Amino acid sequence: VKVEDASEEAPQLGTDESYSLTIDTQHGNNGFITAPTIYGALRGLETFSQLVYFDFDTATYRLSVGLPLSIHDAPRFSHRGLMIDTARHFLPIHTIKHALDSMSFAKLNVLHWHISDT
Predict the structure, then answer these.
(1) Sign of the torsion angle spanned by Cα atoms 43, 104, 16, 7
(2) Which of 104, 83, 109, 107 lies closest to 13 in space, CA to CA?
(3) Which contacts qualify for 50-55: CB closer than 8 Å, 24 or more apart?
(4) Which of 6, 27, 53, 87 has its CA 20 to 30 A from that of 63?
């Protein structure tokens, strides 16, 4: 993983979340992720995790796509979010935690939590 700007400041509306993921057969099936920010690297790692599966017959991890592989990706919209309205609809804590954990799978970056009505 190569990140051009390793700053850990909080993401802003316009933070570059683009990345390139390359798996090259010429270099021993090694994978490379390059991104301008750590948030792009996180998106690239999430994409990589979605390409890998465990083969129970051979007890090895495999890619679900053919090689070589090259992905260049960037979010279409800078604001990609989920809204939870617990002010009007009760949700158990484990459900809210599950929703938070699931946001990374869809590469969502904003949680709007409507907690109370006044």
Answers:
(1) negative
(2) 109
(3) 50/105
(4) 6
pLDDT in tens, 52-83: 999 999 999 988 888 888 999 999 988 899 99
Q: What percent of the chain has pLDDT over 70?
A: 99
Q: Could you give the maximum distance between any two Cα atoms of the chain, in Å? A: 61
Residue 8 identity: E
- As beta bridge partners, residue 84 has 113
Task: Compute the mean pLDDT over every residue in the chain, rounded to the nearest whole number.
Answer: 91
CA distance 3 to 66: 26
Token pair belonging to 22: 């390359």
